[in-house]
Amino acid sequence: MIRAIIFGVDGVLVHPMVFSRVLARDHGLTIEDTAGFFEGPFKRCLCGEADLKAELPRYLKERGWPNSLEDFLGRWLEADSEVNREMLDLATRARQNGKLCYIASTQERYRASYLEKELGFGSMFDGLFFSCRVGCQKPEPEFYEVVSNEVGFEPGELLFFDDVHENVTAARAAGWNAEAYTIGMEVSGVAAKYAFFANRSIKWHYDAATAIRQLWGRSSHGDD
């Protein structure tokens, strides 16, 4: 029986890679332009070994960023904050039905704090496991071990959603149930597969929503 559900953030609870598109569109900074930073010092920030505010200024200066460090960080955090309501609703309903829900995500400290406080994830979930606080990251086996120990359930009682297949594979290797998810996927089948909801009215909600979508599709395309 599933007792706890664990969610990744980017690509699961939050729409991913928005800021990279903003940088390219508004400032002419492509993914190739920023690769040196994200493949270098940023990785140390993700495990809490370096501070983003100490690492960024040199790169911003090299790329001719016209405004302050705080302005850059503020734009970054705000851009990458569009939540996926469907999965947040899933977590809410799961908690209402007695499941514990956690976040397990690779984040540096400032975005971790933003997700926790500004987006309110700290009050929406039963616990937050961020790589910058744990000291390791997905898909390293140590990350899953730390989360399992902290949650306190058997690995087979955990269910994990992530959009990166390597992370899903590593979770399964740790004994977790794990599902690859991308935003826009239907989740009612997964909910039924693992019997998230004891409350029949909530299962009806999924079944009715599916039926309504199917009916709407037929009516909008005619009777053929």
Question: Mind explaining what this structure looks like?
Answer:
The chain has helices at residues 18-27, 31-38, 41-46, 52-62, 69-79, 85-96, 109-118, 121-124, 131-134, 141-151, 165-173, 188-194, 200-220, and strands spanning 4-7, 100-105, 127-130, 158-162, 177-180. With 224 residues, the chain is an alpha/beta fold. It folds into 2 domains: 4-14 and 84-185, HAD superfamily/HAD-like (Rossmann fold), CATH 3.40.50.1000; 18-79, no CATH class. The chain has a 5-stranded parallel β-sheet, with helices on both faces. Strand 4, helix 11 (165-173) and strand 5 (177-180) form a beta-alpha-beta unit. It starts with a strand and ends with a helix.
CATH class call of the largest domain: Alpha Beta
Helical percent range? 55-70%
Summed over residues and divided by their number, the pLDDT gives a mean of 88
CATH topology of the largest domain: Rossmann fold
Largest sheet: 5 strands, parallel
Full CATH superfamily name of the largest domain: HAD superfamily/HAD-like
N to C succession of SSEs: EHHHHHHEHHEHHEHEHH
Count all strands and give the number.
Answer: 5
CATH architecture of the largest domain: 3-Layer(aba) Sandwich
Given as residue ranges, the uncertain stretches (5+ residues, pLDDT < 50) are 199-224
The radius of gyration computed from the alpha-carbon positions, rounded to a whole number of angstroms, is 20 Å
Strand order of the largest sheet: 3-2-1-4-5
Terminal Cα span: 43 Å
Number of domains: 2
Strand content: 5-15%
